[in-house]
Amino acid sequence: MSEYSDEIDPYHDSNSDRDPDYLSENDSFISAASRSSLVNIAIPEHIITSSDSEEDHPEENVLSVKMTKKRKRTPHKWKRNVRKYERNSSMQYTNSENRVIEAKKQGLRCQCRNECFDKFTEIERDNIVGNYSQILH
């Protein structure tokens, strides 16, 4: 009788991919994350051949398809780039070690022999520093 059962079901001992009833371990397990990413797509009825029972109750056939969406980059919001922008703009910023670095301030009067302090007023110095930080960006 065992020979007879082998003739009826030739795949009863094997885990062959040809076996229509075989499910691998990967196929039988679907994670919750993959279930939540499934999207239902309605299929028009004229595409699918329907039986008499379906004609009595016309309903849309639904096919589940996994849809993904990639994240778009926003480099202007990245912490590293925000710190870099604030540092280059002479603004107060927090460094990578979470220490607050105060905004840059203009130094004391220039004591060089070119007499820069006499040639430029305080307002002109502020404009030069402001224009310089705008050029960097």
Task: Give the tags.
12% strand, 137 residues
Describe the 3D structure:
This protein has 137 residues and is of the alpha+beta class. Among the domains are: 35-66, no CATH class; 75-135, no CATH class. Helix content is 36%, strand content 12%. The protein has seven helices and four strands, in the order H-H-H-E-H-E-H-E-E-H-H. It has a two-stranded antiparallel sheet. Strands 3-4 form a two-stranded antiparallel sheet. The longest helix has 14 residues, at 122-135. The model has no long low-confidence stretch (mean pLDDT 72).
Task: Break the fold down into its secondary structure elements and pairings.
Elements: H1 2-8, H2 25-28, H3 32-36, E1 38-43, H4 52-56, E2 61-66, H5 79-88, E3 93-94, E4 100-101, H6 116-119, H7 122-135
Antiparallel strand pairs: 1-2, 3-4
Helical content (DSSP H or I, runs of 4+):
25-40%
Structural class: alpha+beta
Radius of gyration: 36 Å
Query: What general outline do the C-alpha atoms trace?
Result: rod-shaped
The biggest beta sheet reads:
2 strands, antiparallel
End-to-end Cα distance, whole Å, is: 86 Å
* Percentage of β-strand residues: 5-15%
Number of helices: 7
Q: How many β-strand runs?
A: 4
Strand order of the largest sheet: 1-2
What is the overall pLDDT average?
A: 72
Uncertain spans, ≥5 residues at pLDDT below 50?
none
Sequence of secondary-structure elements: HHHEHEHEEHH
Biased composition (Basic and acidic residues): 9-21
Biased composition (Basic residues): 67-78
Region (Disordered): 1-27, 49-78
